[in-house]
Design brief:
Order of helices and strands: HHHHHEHHEHEHHEHEEHEEHHEHHEHH
Number of helices: 18
Structural class: alpha/beta
Number of strands: 10
Largest sheet: 5 strands, parallel
Strand order of the largest sheet: 4-3-2-1-10
Helix content: 40-55%
Amino acid sequence: MNILTNKRLQLLSSAALFFVPMMSNAPASAMEAVSPLQDGILAEEQSSPEETELDLKQAELLLESMSLEKKISQMFILTPEMLTGAGTVIQAGETTRSALEKYPVGGLIYMSQNIVTEEQFTAMARDIQSYSLELTSLPLFLCVDEEGGTVRRVSGNLPLIPEVPDMRSVGQSGDLEEAYETGALIGSYLASLGFNVDFAPVADVVTDPKASAISDRSFGSNPLVVGNMAAACARGIREQGVYATLKHFPGHGAVEEDSHLSGVISQKALIQLKTEDLIPFMIGISEGTDFIMAGHISFPNITDDHVPASLSHYFLTDLLRDEMGYTGLIVTDALNMGAVTDFYSPGEAAVMAVSAGADLLLMPEDFKAAHQSIVEAVRRGEISEERIDESVRRIIALKLTVEPGKEGA
């Protein structure tokens, strides 16, 4: 049970403040789509105070047992190749265990190359989780990019796993139940394999038809429709025992460039973000999303610089945390993408991301350099250890909601 659940109704009230400018001009059909989401929040089971207090105490005890280096390790999500230094990884043996003992990272992300058969992957997931529990008393976040459509690592790769359509076609249906069922399908086969985190669904609003980087990965161009479709899909994923992730905050739907290849700049003003791109994220926050992925998009008309949102204190802390009220985990988009590596060293990007407020750093270009740079930044006082503890406390608290003996959430 997510210990943050009891804040969801409060977050719904906060979300309403963001919705007012948009909803005053929204079509009735879009506004009506909000009701099922609100009903779902009101009906959701709440954590008891006793459960919450127990989880918090356990999280504190685990946090206190960790060295600074191990706490910082928990803030990284790597490919198994990045962790072990091996070639293509399709099993978890002594090399994996030794690497995890030295660097007890928060999670691993798997690509198509790591998934050969269902039996092979489930065995690998089971083994790596047993190592993690033995070494840290915590499970790993086992992650994958499984959106459906063109972005999938599992669907279509294994013969018994059905292919999932792109989210544009789901959005065009106008059917929240279809969005939910799509998420449930994705979540069910991911959970059966041992995954517990899906870096999906996309919550970007395609406000510019030239935004080819997102295109049919988005549910559409209406912020309320996208928000409710993404929330329904995320709910379907989550109810199968897999954490869902809304991405790419604060919105990648109005840029043509691909952040995998180069820097991406949006000329939007803050009022445009609040009445368009941020709406789906506020809906997701109201529903209690556990992960939000920050994109590598810069907004010079908002911050007066070209620092990408994923490394920006304004976007991650001032806006997402303080103004929008988000209390879940913030994960960066992959830090080995051109939008980061063209401008920052692995160490610089890692320190900036943590200083900005990110909890989890995904796929740095050089993990050991990134890890060491954060350690050194803490030791020289650039980053406080309390800041590290803040993120690791969130990570541990969410990991404690993973049921014992089960790979999924």
